[in-house]
Amino acid sequence: MTNLAMLFVCLAAGMILRAGNRLPENAPATINGFIINVGLPALILANLHDLQISTALIWPVLMPWLLFALGLLTFLGIARMLHFSRPITGALILTAGLGNTAVVGLPMIEAFYGPKQLATGILIDQLGTYLVLSTAGITVACLFSSGSASPREIARKVVTFPPLVALVLALLTITLPYPAWLAGLFERLGETLTPLALVSVGLQLRLGQLRGCYMPLSLGLAFKLILGPALIALLYLGILGKGGQMMQVTLFEAAMGPQIGGAVVAMQYGFNPALITLMVGIGITLSFVTLPLWNLALTPY
Hints:
single chain; about 300 residues; mainly alpha; Na+/H+ antiporter like fold; about 0% strand
C-alpha cells in the first residue's frame, strides 16, 4: 500500500506548499507542462514496450473508450439541461470520463486480485486510458477550451500531443529491446508523473471552493464512481455475457476514481480549476470506499 500512501502524502504536500506560499503562483502550470511533455511520455515508453498483446484482450482495452463515450454523452446532456459552462462541461468529461487505471488502479488490482492480474490492468491503462486521453481527450479539450480551434488545428494538436507520439513510438519499437540505460531513464522519468501531478493538484485544491461546485462535483463523482462502471458492467455482464476474473478486473478498473492525466490536460486548457482539483482529490479518496464494494459486487461473476 506504499503507492496509496504516496497519493495522500503528495496531495498534502501540495496543499502545505500553497498554504506556506513556498512556490510561485504559476508553479502548477510549470509542473503540468513537465508532466505532459516529459513524465507521461516516459511512462508510456517504459510500460508499453514490454506488453504482450493478444486479441483476447480486446474487451478490457475497449472499456476506457466506452467509458469515455458514455461520459461524453452524459455530460453533454446534463450541460444542456443545467446550462453548465463550457469549462465545467469539459472538466467533467476529462475527469469523470477517464479512470485512474494506473496510479490507483494497479495497486488496487494487486491488493484484490493478485499480481498475476496486473498485466490486464497495464493494458487497460496504456492501450485504453492513455490512448483515449491522447486522441479523444485532447480533441474534447480543444473543442471546449475558450479559444476556437479549426478541425485542422485540432488534428495538429492531436498528432503532436507528446503522449500520443510516445505511444506510437513504443508500439513501433515493441520488438526492439531497449538498452538498459534507456529503459532505466524512461522508468525514472515516468515515476515523476504521480508525485508531481498530485503536488500540482494539491497546490490548487481549495476545499473552501466546494460551495460553488456542489452540483457539477456531485454529478461527476456519481458518474465516475457509480453510474459509469454500472453501465459498463450491464453491457459486459448482462448484454454480452462476459465473465471470469479478467472481466472482474476490467470492471474494477472502470470504477476507479478520476484520472490524474485527464485532470492535468483539463487544467492546461484552462477549464474550471476548482472543479478539476476537487474531482481528483475527493474522487480518489471516495474510491477507497467504493472500490471494495465493487469488488464484492463483481465476485459472483
